[in-house]
């Protein structure tokens, strides 16, 4: 299984790339030009903070043993008892924790205090993600979603996408909408960044889905055979669902709003990848195309809900990740085939409604757990350190206020060494004054 | 005929446009500009090097109006753009000698 190990090194790096920089670019391009750096910083800080916390306690909470909600946090504290030839599996799961936390940031564009984000990250990882990873990925007979309910989730439709989508909704309900929204539409400032980010997410997602194989064989030969058969299935499903979702999104968008847009194509990519994430191992290629097309179409419609219901989910974490995650996870109940990784036939493959029931129950548990816990964390932060920047700071722009930087310097015609809007180094100006 | 020029905070621009449209102003010229008055810029830091950003972004609105509408238009801009804080901007009025609509050749009041 040397080939598998070598592949996991690459897969892990690919999933880390999904956060830094793919998600940072995808979200950054959709932000306003005065918030793009802060948006990217939320991804970068998620990598730094959640990554170290994962090694300290996250792996142990997820994978050190039994537990309905989580395993003993101190059993494998700082990877105690994990040999270095097992580190790559820790690193792989760490990158999942990072991107799940980073995904939430898309909902809070331009108004959340950077300090509040930095405190929210470890709290949310500890209280919500690490337990959810145990319930889904750290599968024992006890773990709630995988073990007790028996819902199929290959790579994280519940633990990653429903989880981050519900968390995003709860966080914006507590945080509130941006000043001027929804009357001011606050359109994306640079869609080329978003297209680039979406493409890189697609690439990285092969690490995410294909790397999520769990071996069930008794011998090396059986595992090798499973590796060859299953990675082909998950790679093809990931690809085809994404392609179908682009078309599904564009079709609905064309019907509802008159044009097929580039942002629609980029969003379709992500919606398809989200929906096939839980189903990558369970379905055949026809199932993958169906799930992708449905997810693209449904998410294309779902991103308009926020305007009717009045929650400012700024970059559509709910419309894409929550809705796409629910679509993919529930549709496993229809399209699952016993030839797939889970060995379960869904409703359309002669397996009856049992699998569908398990999938729906898994979704409801994920929504309930993430929703309640995230709301408690958000409320606690709001009433202690505060979640929002002041009105003046929000209007001026969070890049300058939180980070002392601006993303673009486009006024170079007004120049004398630097430009007036880009500024001149304060030190240089002082010496100039002395000469005068 | 008068030219009303207003320099306002960018986030107030949508409010001002809506109010002027409701009043009956059918067109205007708008530019993104930079400047400063009593509101100064801010400091940015790149790898420890501090930069004084002297200019603050603003929106400049230019509207040519009939003499009789000047007070209303100025009043609307002041009322809707006002936050009461430094940096709300300025409005000024200047006389206009002649206006021609390019498409038709209409002159003065007929061209507004």
How would you sum up this structure in a few lines?
The complex is a heterodimer of chains A (436) and B (112). Chain A is mainly α. Chain A is built from 16 helices and three strands.
Describe the structure.
The complex is a heterodimer of chains A (436) and B (112). Chain A is mainly α and 436 residues long. Chain A has a single domain, classed as Ammonium transporter AmtB like domains (Ammonium transporter fold, Orthogonal Bundle), CATH 1.10.3430. Chain A is built from 16 helices and 3 strands. Chain A has a two-stranded antiparallel sheet. Chain A starts with a helix and ends with a helix. Mean pLDDT of chain A is 94; it is low at 415-422 and 429-436. By secondary structure, chain B is an alpha+beta fold. Chain B has one domain (2-111): Alpha-Beta Plaits (2-Layer Sandwich), CATH 3.30.70. Chain B has helices spanning 13-23, 70-81; strands at 2-8, 29-35, 42-46, 49-53, 56-65, 89-95. Chain B has a 4-stranded antiparallel beta sheet with strand order 2-5-1-6, covered by helices on one side. The longest helix of chain B is centred in the C-terminal third of the chain and has 12 residues, at 70-81. Chain B is elongated. The interface between A and B is medium-sized, with 23 and 19 residues.
CATH architecture of chain B: 2-Layer Sandwich
What is the CATH C level class of chain B, in words? Alpha Beta
Q: Spatial order of the strands in the main sheet of chain B?
A: 2-5-1-6
Order of helices and strands of chain A: HHHHHHHHHHHHHHHEEEH
Poorly predicted segments of chain A: 415-422, 429-436
The portion of residues forming beta strands of chain B comes to 35-45%
**Overall pLDDT metric of chain B:** 93
Question: How would you describe the oligomerization state of the chains in this entry?
Answer: heterodimer
Inertia-based shape of chain A: globular
The total count of strands of chain B amounts to: 6
Largest interface: A-B, 23 and 19 residues
| SSE pattern of chain B, N- to C-terminal | EHEEEEHE
Q: Tally the helices of chain B: what do you get?
A: 2
- Cα Rg of chain A: 22 Å
CATH architecture of chain A: Orthogonal Bundle
CATH topology of chain A: Ammonium transporter fold
Radius of gyration of chain B: 17 Å
> Whole-Å distance between the termini of chain A?
73 Å
Share of β-strand residues of chain A: under 5%
Percent helix of chain B: 10-25%
């Amino acid at each position: 299984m040397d080939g598998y190990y070598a592949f996991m090194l690459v897969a892990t790096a690919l999933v880390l790339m999904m956060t830094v920089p793919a998600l940072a670019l995808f979200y950054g391009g959709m932000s306003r030009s005065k918030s793009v750096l802060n948006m990217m910083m939320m991804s970068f800080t998620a990598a730094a903070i959640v990554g170290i916390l994962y090694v300290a306690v996250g792996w142990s909470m997820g994978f050190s043993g039994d537990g309905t909600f989580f395993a003993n946090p101190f059993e494998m504290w700082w990877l105690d008892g994990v040999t270095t030839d097992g580190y790559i599996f820790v690193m792989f799961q760490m990158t999942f924790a990072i991107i799940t936390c980073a995904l939430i940031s898309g909902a809070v564009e331009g108004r959340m205090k950077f300090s509040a984000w930095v405190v929210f990250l470890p709290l949310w990882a500890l209280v919500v993600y690490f337990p959810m990873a145990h319930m889904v990925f750290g599968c024992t007979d006890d773990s709630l979603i995988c073990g007790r309910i028996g819902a199929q989730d290959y790579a994280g439709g519940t633990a990653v996408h429903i989880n981050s989508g519900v968390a995003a909704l709860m966080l914006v309900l507590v945080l509130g909408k941006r000043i001027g929204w929804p009357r001011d539409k606050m359109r994306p400032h640079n869609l080329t960044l978003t297209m680039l980010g979406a493409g890189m997410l697609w690439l990285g997602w092969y690490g995410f889905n294909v790397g999520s194989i769990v071996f069930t064989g008794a011998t090396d030969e059986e595992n090798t055979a499973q590796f060859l058969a299953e990675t082909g299935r998950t790679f093809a499903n990931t690809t085809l669902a994404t392609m179908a979702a682009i078309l599904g999104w564009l079709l609905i968008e064309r019907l509802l709003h008159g044009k097929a847009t580039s942002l629609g194509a980029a969003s379709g990519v992500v919606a398809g990848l989200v929906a096939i994430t839980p189903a990558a191992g369970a379905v055949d290629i026809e199932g993958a195309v169906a799930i992708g097309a449905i997810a693209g179409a449904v998410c294309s419609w779902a991103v308009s809900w926020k305007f009717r219901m009045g929650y400012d989910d700024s970059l559509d974490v709910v419309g894409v990740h929550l809705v796409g995650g629910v679509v993919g996870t529930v549709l496993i109940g229809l399209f699952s085939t016993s030839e797939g990784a889970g060995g379960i036939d869904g409703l359309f493959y002669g397996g009856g409604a049992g699998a569908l029931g398990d999938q729906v129950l898994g979704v409801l548990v994920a929504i309930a757990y993430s929703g309640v816990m995230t709301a408690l964390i958000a409320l606690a932060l709001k009433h202690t350190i505060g979640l929002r920047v002041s009105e003046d700071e929000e209007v001026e722009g969070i890049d300058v206020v939180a980070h002392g930087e601006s993303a673009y310097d486009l006024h170079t015609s007004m120049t004398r060494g630097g430009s007036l809007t880009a500024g001149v180094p304060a030190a240089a100006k002082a010496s100039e004054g002395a000469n005068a | 005929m008068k030219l009303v020029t207003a320099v306002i905070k960018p986030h107030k621009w949508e409010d001002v446009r809506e109010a002027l449209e409701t009043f009956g102003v059918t067109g205007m010229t708008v530019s993104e500009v930079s400047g400063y008055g009593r509101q100064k810029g801010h400091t940015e830091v790149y790898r420890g090097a501090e930069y004084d950003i002297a200019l603050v972004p603003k929106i400049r609105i230019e509207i040519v109006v009939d003499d009789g509408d000047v007070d209303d238009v100025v009043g609307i801009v002041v009322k809707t753009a006002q936050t009461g804080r430094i940096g709300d901007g300025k409005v000024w009025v200047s006389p206009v000698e002649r206006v021609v609509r390019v498409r038709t050749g209409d002159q003065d009041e007929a061209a507004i």
